[in-house]
Amino acid sequence: MPLVFVHGVNVREGELYSRERAFRDRHFVEVFYRQLGRQVASESILNPYWGDLGASLSPDTPFLPRGGYDMLWRRNLEADPDTAVSDIEDIFDSDCATPLLEMARTASLADVVDLLWDIADQEMNEAGKDCGKSAEDMARLAQRALDFAHSPEGEAWLQTVKTDEELLERLGGLLHEDENKANPARASKDSGAQKTAGKTTMAGLVKSAGGRFQKRINDARQNLRTQSKSLRVRLREDMANVRLRIRQKAVGTTARLINNPIRHIFHQQCALLIGDAFSYFSARGDDRPSPIAQRVIDALQEAAIVRDKTGEELIVIGHSMGGVILCDIVTHYGKDIPIDVLITVGSQFPLFADLRMFPGVNPAERPVPRPENVRRWINIFDPHDFLGYPGSHIFEGIDDFHLPTYAVGGAAHTDYFNRPSFYWQLARRLMDYVPVRA
Fold it and tell me: Do residues 245 and 114 make contact, with C-beta atoms less than 8 angstroms apart?
């Protein structure tokens, strides 16, 4: 039973590739094939390698961050850079009675402005036409608030504030005065509006936004006291928008994050992912396969010869970009190659099909018929894999299966073939298509 495995992007020859290939071949032979009742030598598994035809990065990776960079935010920092982040975290994890004021002093008043304007914008959307402010008003007032926040006057003013309520009252009042100076006619018309319809003024919006924020904090804290530890995670998720606005206080801390080796590895992997995909699509024409596709076609034709001689089923598996390449081949460049079972795993071919990247696929005519040279097509994706997609919504005759590995981050995309159970379950599912031999 010949088998062809087509790898995805960011695969290069070396110790890691050799180790992963040996692991796959070993588990195909000892788990997958045995489960199907077949005794197959590893030589029957073809692994067309195309990494050398993919993207080539400069040895010094000049696109990666290195060294020191000036921070966009200009601030004179007095706090210890190493404790800046933990101080900010304590605002949310403790019973701090003045979270807004602590945020302003630990991070900056500008971060409080970002937060309040975000919540005020939500209130404006909810109020609709009943809100007395326009998006233009809010933007103009934001500019004035930020000017004040970064001024010596604003820094001195912040040191005199004692509570969140006072901060909200004084900030709203300051902006209300500024707004009246900018528009005296409107100020005269709305002279009594703040008392009767507070939300129609900036002071009212600021106060209401602050109240909403404090309620969220208090509700989350109360839940943490009475319920399970998992709610601490929920609190952090709920406050994600707040924390995104809390800047790193120290250039030194930011520089360490920028130059973190893990960040470099992630950037380099993303670069190869994008580069390999571009290399593939840019090198092929409407009637001419790319060099990468041609190498895979050669392996498929070699395996098809074995299939014809032995009468065994030809199984073809493509992981990630490997599935994209195979989709391109079976729908256009290699429609004459008979494949008994095509298995795509964690692949983006449905996305590229919808983007009209395949000359042999017209997604406007859905469902797209399964290629005549493919008897069965199985597609597997992990719901946690952001690079794996179901194919049955575009293609007719594809059997989609989801595999919840519960892996986190990029591991959900790379770990399919690192699990012995995957080969066992794949063989069990394949029994619906391939006869099992005793």
Answer: yes
